[in-house]
Amino acid sequence: MKAEIRCIVVDDEPLAREIIENYISRIDHLTLVASCGNALEAFNIVANKRIDLIFLDIQMPDLTGIDFLKDLTPSPNVIFTTAYSDYALDAFNLEVIDYLLKPIEFSRFLKSVNRVLKLSKSTSTPLALSNNNNDDDEYNYQDIFIYLKVEKKMQKIFLKNILYIESLKNYIKIKTSDREIIAYKSISSIESVLPSTRFLRVHRSFIISIDHIDAFSTTEIELKGTKIPIGRNYKTSVKEKLGYF
Question: Count of domains in the chain?
Answer without folding.
Answer: 2
